[in-house]
Design goal:
Low-confidence stretches: none
Mean pLDDT: 84
Oligomer: single chain
Order of helices and strands: HHHHHHHHHHHHHHHHHHHHH
Strand content: under 5%
Distance between the termini: 21 Å
Radius of gyration: 22 Å
Largest sheet: none
Shape: globular
Number of strands: 0
Amino acid sequence: MGIKSNISYNLVLTLSGYVIGLITFPYVSRVLGVSNLGVISFVDNTINYFILFATLGASTIGTREIARFKGDKDKVNAVFTNLILLYTIYSVIVILLYFIAVTFIDKLNIYRELFYIGSAKLLFSVFLIEWLYRGLENFKFITTRSLIIKLIYVLSIFIFVNDRNDYIIYFVLTTLSVVINGLINIFYSKNIVKFVFHEINLKPYLKQSIILGSYSILTSVYTTFNIMYLGFVSDTIQVGYYWVSIKIYTIILGFYTAFTGAIMPRMSSLLSSGEKEEFNELIVKSFDILFAFCFPLIIFSIIHSPQIIHILSGSEFGGAIFPMKIIMPLVLVVGIAQILAIQVLIPLQKDKIILHASIIGAIVSVFCNVVFVKKLGATGSAIVLLFSEIAVTSYYILKCRKSHIVKFPYKKLVKYFIISLPYIFICNISLKLFIEKEVAMILFTIVLFILYFVYSHNFLLKSDTISKMFRLLINNIKNN
C-alpha cells in the first residue's frame, strides 16, 4: 500500500475521530457536567497510567520491528509471538498491582466501582496490537474497524447516556470500545500471523521495552499522570476543566498525528533499504506541513477559545478557557517533537536520546507540578504540560543538531510565523462583527482563514509541498 493511501486512511480515521468528538463532546459535557467528567477523567487517566506499564513501548517496538521484517513472514511471526508473550507477562504483573492499589489507596478506593469496570480496558490493551497492522501498513483495516466501532459507540452514548447519573454507563461504553477493538484485532490477526513458540527469545525485546517503556512512562508524568496528580491534590471540577482543554487540544493535534503515524513505518522501511534521500525529503515535507497548519490553528484556538469552549461544552466550563489558551501553542511544540522523535529518531533507533528527553520532561514536570498545580488547579496543570513539552522538544532539536542527524529549519519557521500574522487581524475583525453570535463568528473566521491560507501559500510563500497538496485535492474533486 502506498504512502498516499496510508496517509489518506489515517486522515480519514483522524477526521472521523474529530467529527465524532464534535458530536459527542458537547452532548456528554452538558449531560454529565463538569464534576462527573472530572471523575471519569481521573479514573480513566489513572487506568491509562497502569496500561503504560503493561504495554511498555509496545506501539513503537512493534511497529518498528514488524516494518523492518514485513517482507519475511517467518520473522514477522517470530516478532509477533515474542511481543505478545512479553506483554502478556507484563500485563499479569500490572493487573495484580492495579487491584492492590485500588484496594488500599483511599483516593482510588472511593471510585472502586469505576476502577473495577476499567480493569477490562487494562486487560484487553495488550490485545489491541495496533502495532502489527501499522508495521504492515494495513491502515485500511485499522480505519474500517475503527469507524464501525466508533459509530456503534456514538449511537450507544445517545441512546443510553441521558442524565448526570449515567456517567457509569458512559464509562462502561468507553471501556467496551477498547475490549471490542482488542477482540477483533486478535481474531483478524489469525489471517496474517501465527504463533511460533520455537522462535521464542524475549531478551532483545526486553531491553528495548525497558528503554522505550521508560520513555513512555516518563512522558506520561506530564501527560497521563498530570491529570491523575491534579485529581489527588485538587477537586474533580478542576480535573473537568483541564480535561476539556486537553480534549480540544488533542482533537486539533490529531490532524498532524495522523500524518506522523502513517509516515513512521515507511521511514523505518526506507532506512532498512538504504533510501536516505527519500527519507530526508519526507522530513522536509513534514516540517512544511506542520508550519503551514499549526500557526493558523494556534491563533484561531487562542483568540476564539471562549467561543470554542462555550459552543462545545456550555457555560459550565468557563474555567477551561485560560488553560486552553496556555496549552494551544503545544500544537507547534509537540508537532516538532513528533517529527524528530517518531519520524527521525525512532526509525534510526536513537532510543537513548528519546529516553534522555523524557527524563528531562519528567523532571521539569515534577518540579512544576509541586509549584503550580495545588495553587492554580487546571491552569497549573496546563503550565506543567507547556513547560515540560518545551523542555523535551528543545532537547530533541539540540541533540539532532549536535549529532548532525537532521537540520532544524529555523528560517522556515520564522517565515511561516510572519506570513501567519494576518490571521490575528482576521480573528479580531470577526470578534467585532459578531459580538454575540458565536457560531457565525467561528464560521466567518474559518472562511477567511481558508481564503488567506490558499492565497498566502500559493502566491506569497509558493511552497511546493502545500501547492502539491492543493493540486492533489483539486484533482480528486474533479475525478469524483
